[in-house]
Design a protein that fits this description.
Blueprint lengths: L2 H8 L6 E7 L3 H18 L6 H15 L7 E8 L2 E8 L20 H8 L2 E6 L5 E8 L43
Helix pairs in contact: 2-3, 3-4
Length: 182
């Protein structure tokens, strides 16, 4: 093996991973977007949380505030280096979102506050008309070891000791015996 080959092997090129899908601007489309994003993140070996929450909020906003009958919204995920970028593009470019203060007791108005809290950066890119793209970026944890990613080694959500993972089913009760041990 020559030194040039060794130098190439030492350089690890991170692949650009991307996923994009058109979804109906409905609650069902927003839910499907969250589910598809979660599955894609899982397939890539990336942390699910808080990306799943950001996707849920942005997709719900597109289905609620960016809805134009007959025009879908686009969900795009891509990873470059150590950054996951989430984009949701809808067809109501004249109404730009902004994080405000939610009224006490009101359900609406908290979505972008959550995105702001979870994302490392987020923003809005207008156009091309009549579209706008709301995006959020998350820095990804570095893998703990070299080689293929799987499970906790790639930063999948792990609940702290003594706390239940919110996606984890409750433990099964002990099995009851249907016959006597005699």
């Amino acid at each position: 093996m020559n030194q040039e080959t060794v130098g190439l092997e030492a350089q690890r090129v991170e692949p650009v991973r991307n996923f994009s899908v058109l979804l109906s601007p409905t609650p069902r489309g927003a839910r499907l977007g969250r589910l598809l994003a979660t599955e894609r993140l899982r397939a890539w070996g990336l942390p699910l949380s808080p990306a799943d929450q950001i996707v849920a909020e942005l997709a719900t906003n597109a289905a609620t505030h960016g809805r134009v009958p007959g025009r879908d919204f686009r969900l795009t995920l891509y990873v470059v280096g150590d950054t996951l970028r989430i984009e949701v593009t809808d067809t109501v470019g004249d109404r730009l979102p902004r994080a405000g203060r939610a009224e006490p007791g009101a359900e609406p108005g908290r979505g972008l506050l959550l995105v702001n809290a979870f994302a490392d950066r987020w923003g809005v890119t207008p156009g091309p008309a009549p579209r706008k793209t709301v995006w959020a970026e998350l820095r990804l944890p570095k893998p703990e070891r070299d080689g293929p990613c799987s499970g906790a080694a790639c930063g999948l959500f792990q609940a702290p000791p003594g706390r239940k993972n919110p996606r984890q089913a409750p433990p099964l009760p002990p099995a009851e015996r249907s016959h006597s041990p005699e």
